DNA sequence: TAGTCTAAGTTACATAAAGTAAGCGAAAAA
DNA sequence: TTTTTCGCTTACTTTATGTAACTTAGACTA
């Protein structure tokens, strides 16, 4: 039986997006450079441990950049690279899909 | 400290897409109705156990439909609903992001 | 000079999610 | 009666994530 061949670039992109928290982190950074604790507080249930892992992975992928400001206490900011900013149209698509198809009939 | 408020619909969409395997399964079904084993074989490393879970979740979300053909042995096909088909432009965006930004410098 | 404070993590431990492989039920074919 | 096929489940193992306490570094405070 044949396996459907997925384009490796596409597959890579899908893997980045499918990994828990990555999409949310990247989305969160669309609004500008942010510090560790800020991102952590922005995404409920995301633990510092996993955030730390994901930021390293995203940096390794060239999607975000880590900037160190040697103040006291040290300030570290994470921001999207061009590669990361290029996700913007994708988020727009997700948004418009959501607008059209996701309903919230009941309020909590 | 304020938390950035994510639109609940958008968040829901992001959660669907971020869950391991869901995006790949939905993408796989874009090519037409498929049976359990076919999907399983199309996605390397996806276990039947998780596929079973995901298909139920996606059906509950109204993204796919499960059709039973009482042949022998029974044939069951999964296919996208309109809601599921509406992911198409999103996959196009992922694809074009991947084309532009993902490189594969070395061949295996 | 010892003790304190803060940001940005890290570590050890506990829980949840996913992977593996064997098994099940139905119906028909051998 | 045994075998085969499909579409799953179940029991068990491994991996991923969550929690909470701890670490490091430099400047500030007592």
TrEMBL record, chains A, B:
Pfam families: HxlR (PF01638). The keyword Transcription regulation applies. The keyword Mitochondrion does not apply. Residues 7-106 form the HTH hxlR-type domain. Transmembrane segments: none annotated. InterPro entries: ArsR-like_HTH (IPR011991), HTH_HxlR (IPR002577), WH-like_DNA-bd_sf (IPR036388), WH_DNA-bd_sf (IPR036390). Gene3D superfamilies: Winged helix-like DNA-binding domain superfamily/Winged helix DNA-binding domain (1.10.10.10). PROSITE patterns: HTH_HXLR. Keywords: DNA-binding, Transcription, Transcription regulation. This is HTH-type transcriptional regulator YodB. It comes from Paenibacillus plantiphilus.
């Amino acid at each position: 039986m044949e396996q459907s061949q997925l384009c490796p670039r596409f597959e890579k992109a899908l893997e980045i997006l499918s990994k828990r928290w990555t999409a949310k982190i990247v989305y969160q950074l669309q609004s500008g450079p942010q510090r560790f604790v800020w991102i952590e507080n922005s995404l409920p249930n995301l633990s510092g441990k996993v955030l730390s892992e994901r930021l390293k992975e995203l940096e390794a992928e060239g999607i975000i950049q880590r900037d160190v400001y040697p103040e006291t206490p040290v300030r570290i900011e994470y921001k999207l690279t061009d590669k990361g900013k290029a996700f913007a149209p994708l988020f727009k698509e997700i948004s418009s899909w959501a607008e059209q198809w996701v309903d919230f009939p009941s309020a909590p």
